Amino acid sequence: MWTVFPGEKAASLLARSGMSNAWRRAGELEKARLLFKKLSGYANHLGLYSDELGANGQHLGNFPQAFTHLALISAATYLDRALS
């Protein structure tokens, strides 16, 4: 199940990608890697992401969301460099 912070109805995938980047920049590579791995598992059968995920992992908001895809690509690139 996806973690939605208290008071939230949905989790922003763009913000969670940014969180992965922030952990990477802070040197918390394992946290960054685990969050990225979790995020990448929420793509639909075509590999597309929406703007947000609901509490049960359902896609909400704009679909497909280009900014979410760009943020995940950026997180993947920088995380790969940090782990190499």
Task: Report what the structure shows.
With 84 residues, this protein is mainly alpha-helical. The chain has one domain. Helix content is 51%, strand content 10%. It contains three helices and three strands. The protein has a three-stranded antiparallel beta sheet with strand order 1-2-3. Strand 2 and strand 3 form a beta hairpin. Helix 1 runs antiparallel to helix 2 and helix 1 packs parallel to helix 3. The longest helix is centred in the C-terminal third of the chain and has 18 residues. It starts with 9 loop residues before the first strand and ends with a helix. The mean pLDDT is 85.
Highlighted features:
84 residues, mainly alpha, 3 strands, globular
Topology, element by element:
Layout: E1 10-12, H1 13-25, H2 29-40, E2 52-54, E3 59-60, H3 66-83
Antiparallel strand pairs: 1-2, 2-3
Radius of gyration: 12 Å
Structurally, the number of domains stands at 1
Strand line-up of the largest beta sheet: 1-2-3
* Percent helix range: 40-55%
Give the topology string: H per helix, E per strand.
Answer: EHHEEH
The secondary-structure class comes to mainly alpha
Mean residue pLDDT: 85
Number of helices: 3
Low-confidence parts: none
